[in-house]
Amino acid sequence: MTKTTDVTDPKAELECLLTGHARAVMPALPDVEVKLDRPREAAHGDFATNVALAGAKAQKKAPREVAQAFVALAQADAAVRALVEAIDVAGPGFVNLRLTPAARQAVVRRILAERGAFGRTRERAGERIMVEFVSANPTGPLHVGHGRQAALGDAISSLLETQGASVTREFYYNDAGQQIQNLAISVRARAKEILGESGEFPEDGYRGEYIRELAQRYLDEVGHDLHDVEAIRHFAVAELRKEQDRDLQAFGVRFDNYYLESSLYTDGRVGATVARLASSGMTYESEGALWLKTTAFGDDKDRVMRKSDGGYTYFVPDVAYHVTKWERGFARVINVQGSDHHSTIVRVRAGLQAMGLGIPQGYPDYVLHKMVTVMRGGEEVKISKRAGSYVTLRDLIDEVGRDAVRFFLVSRKADSEFTFDIDLARSQSEENPVYYVQYAHARVASVLRQAGVARDAAAARYAGTDLSPLAGSYERTLLNRLADFPDELAAAAREFAPHQITFYLKDLAQAFHGYYNAERFLVDDAKLRDARLALVVATGEVLKNGLSVLGIGAPDEM
């Protein structure tokens, strides 16, 4: 293992040094590595490791004996002593470490130097990743579930980018199939009503007010000839795509590429996919239909590919679409979809395996999210007047603002139910998590204004500050939380879990608010004042960085 020389990252430095000592006392485990974690109790120190407990069995020794030998070597190492003021054995074999004040304070200097780059790495540089999300049918306005998916997909993409990956955000338009035909027929029926013509509205048609709006625009812009259903379909899809794009733009979500389901048919990819699967020996015909042997890949039953009427089931274009992802060079693909897509995972993966293209078995990855319940005044909100049967993303943005919607929708694990409380999202209180975090950043800006320091110049001004006065308990807590940010980003990216960043930001905001309420910053002692202001500036930078990953602003005033 190559020893790092980055003394601004004492954790990485210590892990490297301590790994060497662990291997020396545990020769039976030549590849053992020391990983340092925060102990549950701050009184136990800044870091802890269970390396002795994990490796004692291989050494055929008691964990505490191994731990004591490990600690003895560490204590004899001058490089370790330069970073650690105390290292000891606790319980059955845990090892606790307390950093020197200088090592703990080093994170401030690193943050002030790196600013927006703090927390970012190049560990996944060269990795091309596609994240597909939203992918709504262009049959109506985006609903709150689409909003949760948009917030999750965009945040996951940003997290992967913090690790150096090249990420492509893709939107897959389901612009083919029966639902699109139903849209066209629905618009035509409303247009006839507007013209005073009799006609029955289709039973499975779309009934929101937006359909009447589309019908009126069609009559105004195209004409009153309603015989051409294909023209109505084309117009309605185009208009709804534009509306969805406007809503996503208002939400601060962008896409690098849009892929049309219909192109899979016009380009012959669906037909080619079916032909290759048929030649693979993994299909058979029964009852006039073509079946894929998905049970060979873990499905509970085989699935129909081509129905008896000649039409394809929905998973066939899905397989064709994912082949294009692989052929476009995306060795890693993450699909963010609603939990109602759970049954498609096995089928799509089975189809890809049966294609025999060398695609990995777990391709693609899936992040499935549950839907959102919207509450106002203690009662569930179910209907948007315009959409007719659901709350739209635009409704929420208009009610509480983009930042609150984005923060709330990623604040829980994707696979957990989420209740969006409009009243809470609008409140200016510490119970509102996004307000609480943004207010911490605004307080940073307020302190700097009072100090007469320009926000953009603050990092450079305090870069060389003597940080030794930062020795209080509130400062220690805040310094440790700041130092955790790179690991928090890495873990959230690895687990596709942006909610971890919301938790981190709330903890960081709590540490700062506690510091703000407990101490004065603009004191007469210049050395103490500058050290505290340096810590304040560093906190603001990390708050801003964390919010940015979630696509949320960091206001200077609230």
Whole-number average pLDDT?
95
Which percent range describes the beta-strand content?
Answer: 5-15%
Structural class: alpha/beta
Query: In percent, how helical is the residue content?
Result: 40-55%
Q: What is the gyration radius calculated from CA atoms?
A: 29 Å
Categorize the overall geometry.
globular
* CATH hierarchy, class of the largest domain: Alpha Beta
The side-by-side strand order for the widest beta sheet comes to 6-5-4-10-11
Identify the CATH homologous superfamily of the largest domain.
HUPs
What does this protein structure show overall?
The chain is α/β, with parallel strands linked by helices and about 550 residues long. The chain folds into 4 domains: about 10-100, Gyrase A, domain 2 (2-Layer Sandwich), CATH 3.30.1360; about 135-255 and about 380-425, Rossmann fold; about 265-370, 3-Layer(aba) Sandwich (Rossmann fold); about 430-550, Orthogonal Bundle (Isoleucyl-tRNA Synthetase, Domain 1). Helices cover about 50% and strands about 15% of the residues. It contains 22 helices and 14 strands. The protein has helices at about 10-25, 50-60, 65-75, 80, 100-115, 145-160, 180-195, 210-220, 230-250, 260-265, 270-280, 315-325, 340-355, 395-400, 400-410, 420-425, 435-450, 460, 475-485, 485-495, 500-520, 525-550; strands at about 45-50, 85-90, 95-100, 130-135, 165-175, 255-260, 285, 290, 305, 330-340, 365-370, 370-375, 380, 420. The protein has a 5-stranded parallel β-sheet with strand order 6-5-4-10-11. Strands 1-3-2 form a 3-stranded antiparallel β-sheet. It has a 3-stranded antiparallel β-sheet with strand order 7-8-9, covered by helices on one side. A hairpin with a 2-residue loop joins strand 12 (about 370-375) and strand 13. Helix 6 crosses helix 20 (about 485-495).
